[in-house]
């Protein structure tokens, strides 16, 4: 009888332990179930759905080259897999572990119908296996990373299967187009198409481009005008590439590669947090934040809309928010600046920002997004504090964001470096700052003072 490979955020053939194990057992049925019900309000956002469409198409083409194909179904994962079992007699399911609370629920349901074999391989080390001396999970990054490093390097990547035996007959599969994952009217995905190549081949070419730059990561990573980061996050999120593949491609190259590997460590750390606190995307890590008087009402909604559309009057914030809208991605330094600005200068609940990112990022990831938003807010279980308020104008200057702003805020394109970060005379159509830096800062600190001792 055939075995099923149940795919989720692991849309690759190489270093994919589920394919590796299933291929040795005989005929394989690769299945992707679009399961919006299990995720409920965490169903994939618009930008991620665009990515998913192209990634599935790419994986199907790669599978066909091996004599196989991808079976697409929509509905509840366990019900769809059970239906395939009735159609084909398959009794074993191979899959990679996923740690979002909804995927863990789905795994429990699938395990009721099948011999479910879960494999590792989407993280440097299995999340949950890195524990402190006392056996508990880590709350803070630095000791977590120290312990994780003891477990590295990760295992050498597994090769992609050379051939996947097809089942005696293929179960029914939905036409991908029927899922309507792509935007129609209006088609906002032009910028995404220009910037990305979803799928395993796209991930490998991004990695190849980064490898030559990796040794100078430290010097370049905070400069949004330069773009010295790997831009692998959506590929990693969808599992088109594994962290072990990246690790073994760059470790030992010298320079500041270690700093880059530490960022992969942050990715593992975020999963470690979600495993301890599954509702971290909606619940403050520090309970005193439950009482924080976030702004609400019409004025706050208008400010939120200005932030979302890149019209706050702060050039670096607006450049970042427009980059996000156009490409589905934003430079990490700028993500930190726009998050701090929303939470502190505008005193808007971090969860509103998290939701916007969830819908607009191609790399929207439950763990990484929640952990980074709570880090920015200072509301998390990590060590960061609310009172660290980023000054957007000096950050913009310090990290040489002039060219970045000129690219994403064309209204300001003619301004020289000396004026672009905080233009005195604003070109027509470019707004005045929606709040002054000192004023925003004072309001944020007063709001925090009200809950500080709680
Ligand atoms: P590189 O700098 O080249 O890093 C390599 C990889 O390490 C990344 O692809 C990513 O997987 C991981 N990584 C890097 N920085 C972090 C970090 N701070 N936390 C966790 N992992 C990290 N990243 C996401 O993948 N999905 C998100 O939804 C997400 N939301 C964020 C929200 C906010 C408010 C902030 C401040 C950061 C967020 N990040 C998120 C983290 C980070 O900004 C991106 O991972 C990074 O910009 C991706 O670009 P890159 O691949 O070029 O990164």
From TrEMBL:
<dbReference type="InterPro" id="IPR036134">
    <property type="entry name" value="Crypto/Photolyase_FAD-like_sf"/>
</dbReference>
<dbReference type="InterPro" id="IPR005101">
    <property type="entry name" value="Cryptochr/Photolyase_FAD-bd"/>
</dbReference>
<dbReference type="InterPro" id="IPR006050">
    <property type="entry name" value="DNA_photolyase_N"/>
</dbReference>
<dbReference type="GO" id="GO:0003677">
    <property type="term" value="F:DNA binding"/>
</dbReference>
<dbReference type="Pfam" id="PF03441">
    <property type="entry name" value="FAD_binding_7"/>
</dbReference>
<dbReference type="GO" id="GO:0009416">
    <property type="term" value="P:response to light stimulus"/>
</dbReference>
<dbReference type="Pfam" id="PF00875">
    <property type="entry name" value="DNA_photolyase"/>
</dbReference>
<dbReference type="GO" id="GO:0006139">
    <property type="term" value="P:nucleobase-containing compound metabolic process"/>
</dbReference>
<keyword id="KW-0456">Lyase</keyword>
<dbReference type="InterPro" id="IPR014729">
    <property type="entry name" value="Rossmann-like_a/b/a_fold"/>
</dbReference>
<feature type="binding site">
    <location>
        <begin position="229"/>
        <end position="233"/>
    </location>
    <ligand>
        <name>FAD</name>
    </ligand>
</feature>
<keyword id="KW-0157">Chromophore</keyword>
<feature type="binding site">
    <location>
        <begin position="363"/>
        <end position="365"/>
    </location>
    <ligand>
        <name>FAD</name>
    </ligand>
</feature>
<dbReference type="InterPro" id="IPR002081">
    <property type="entry name" value="Cryptochrome/DNA_photolyase_1"/>
</dbReference>
<feature type="site" description="Electron transfer via tryptophanyl radical">
    <location>
        <position position="373"/>
    </location>
</feature>
<feature type="binding site">
    <location>
        <position position="260"/>
    </location>
    <ligand>
        <name>FAD</name>
    </ligand>
</feature>
<feature type="binding site">
    <location>
        <position position="217"/>
    </location>
    <ligand>
        <name>FAD</name>
    </ligand>
</feature>
<keyword id="KW-0274">FAD</keyword>
<dbReference type="GO" id="GO:0071949">
    <property type="term" value="F:FAD binding"/>
</dbReference>
<protein>
    <submittedName>
        <fullName>Deoxyribodipyrimidine photo-lyase</fullName>
    </submittedName>
</protein>
<feature type="site" description="Electron transfer via tryptophanyl radical">
    <location>
        <position position="350"/>
    </location>
</feature>
<dbReference type="InterPro" id="IPR018394">
    <property type="entry name" value="DNA_photolyase_1_CS_C"/>
</dbReference>
<feature type="site" description="Electron transfer via tryptophanyl radical">
    <location>
        <position position="294"/>
    </location>
</feature>
<feature type="domain" description="Photolyase/cryptochrome alpha/beta">
    <location>
        <begin position="1"/>
        <end position="124"/>
    </location>
</feature>
<keyword id="KW-0285">Flavoprotein</keyword>
<dbReference type="GO" id="GO:0006950">
    <property type="term" value="P:response to stress"/>
</dbReference>
<dbReference type="InterPro" id="IPR036155">
    <property type="entry name" value="Crypto/Photolyase_N_sf"/>
</dbReference>
<dbReference type="GO" id="GO:0003904">
    <property type="term" value="F:deoxyribodipyrimidine photo-lyase activity"/>
</dbReference>
<comment type="similarity">
    <text>Belongs to the DNA photolyase family.</text>
</comment>
